[in-house]
C-alpha cells in the first residue's frame, strides 16, 4: 500500500471531517426526534446539542 502524496491528505481530512459531521447530525437529530416524541428531553439531550455545536465550530476552524 502506497502512501498518498501530501496534497491528497487535505482532501482526505476534509472528507472524513464532513462524514463525521453528517453522522453526528443524523445521530443527534434522530435522538432528539425520539425523545420529543416520548416527551422525555433531559439535560443529556441539551448537552448533546451543545457538543454538536462545539464540534461544528471545531471542525470548521472557527474560534469561539
Task: Describe the fold and architecture.
The structure is a single chain. This protein has 64 residues and is mainly alpha-helical. The protein has helices at 6-37, 43-60. The termini are far apart. The relative contact order is 0.10. The mean pLDDT is 89.
Question: What's the number of helices?
Answer: 2
Strand content: under 5%
Share of helix, binned: over 70%
What is the multimeric organization of the chains shown?
Answer: single chain
Low-confidence stretches: none
Rg, alpha carbons: 16 Å
Cα shape: elongated
Number of strands: 0
Report on the biggest sheet.
none
SSE series:
HH
Straight-line N-to-C gap: 40 Å
Mean pLDDT: 89
**Class derived from helix and strand content:** mainly alpha
Features:
mainly alpha; 64 residues; 78% helix
List the topology elements:
Elements: H1 6-37, H2 43-60
Helix pairs in contact: 1-2
Describe this structure in a few short sentences.
This protein has 64 residues and is mainly α.
Amino acid at each position: 500500500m502506497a502512501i498518498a502524496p501530501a496534497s491528497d491528505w487535505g482532501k482526505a481530512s476534509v472528507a472524513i471531517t464532513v462524514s463525521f459531521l453528517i453522522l453526528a447530525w443524523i445521530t443527534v437529530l434522530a435522538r432528539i426526534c425520539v425523545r420529543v416524541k416520548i416527551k422525555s428531553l433531559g439535560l443529556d439531550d441539551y448537552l448533546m446539542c451543545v457538543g454538536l455545536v462545539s464540534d461544528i465550530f471545531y471542525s470548521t476552524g472557527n474560534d469561539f
